[in-house]
Amino acid sequence: LMPIISGQADVVYGSRLVTAAPHRVLYYWHYLANKFLTSFSNVLTNLNLTDMETGFKIFRGDIVRKIAPKLQSKRFGFEPEITARISKISEIKIYEVGISYSGRTYKEGKKITWKDGVKALFEIIKYNLFTS
Per its UniProt record, what InterPro entries does this chain match (predicted)? Predict the structure, then answer.
């Protein structure tokens, strides 16, 4: 929140991967899929995020008002879409901060599956190459 309050940033992503804090270790394949999707998104957006799929994102109000009417995705397609859309705003200042995170097991309520990863891949392509 501080990068926005201080005027340094327009958008702040919380990264589960940039932190010195202790964190729960869970599924390797989820981690690998996240790294792949984030890297692929970075190639198409020319950003250098470490955790595009994070649920922790903060935006200045004017940025939200600018992109909200265009948003189409649901579920796990939201992260690739919003990342693609903000990357197309010229001179936008995007910051990333480490966040604490305690992942859930499927028994505890984790809902993402491999199908969501495939959908996210298509969303990255769609919103980076075929939308303005």
Answer: Glycosyltransferase_2, Nucleotide-diphossugar_trans
